[in-house]
Specification:
Layout: E1 9-12, E2 21-28, E3 33-36, E4 41-46, E5 56-61, E6 64-65, E7 69-72, E8 79-80, E9 82-87, E10 90-95, E11 100-101
Antiparallel strand pairs: 1-2, 1-7, 2-3, 3-6, 4-5, 7-8, 9-10, 10-11
């Protein structure tokens, strides 16, 4: 069972956005990178296209390394480690504080 899933709320542990929280949009397990909503936003110069005829500078979210994020504890909102427990025959993810993670 994966300890990090899409739509989990995570806390950034390192980098320019340290301490920020956001939801996981995408996980690339081959390169160990995570795309987090509203975090690691960079400006990129884009040429005009039919969809965006203006072009110019566009804000993009770039991926972070998976080691630089941690799941946010549902109780406290702080970074926590995740363990897998079995309840009623099903495996569920549990924060170190004991709160179940959806």
């Amino acid at each position: 069972m994966q300890k990090l899933k899409v739509s989990d709320t995570v806390v950034v542990l390192a980098g320019k956005d340290k301490g920020k929280q956001g939801k996981v949009k995408n996980i690339n397990w081959k390169t160990n990178r995570v795309l987090v909503e509203g975090v690691n936003v960079v400006k990129k110069a884009m040429k005009p296209t039919q969809q965006a005829p203006q072009g110019g500078l566009v804000d993009l979210e770039k991926a972070l390394h998976i080691s630089n994020v941690a799941v946010a504890d549902p109780k406290t909102g702080k970074a926590t480690r995740v363990k897998v427990q079995e309840k009623n025959g099903k495996k569920i993810r549990v924060a170190k504080s004991g709160a179940d993670i959806k």
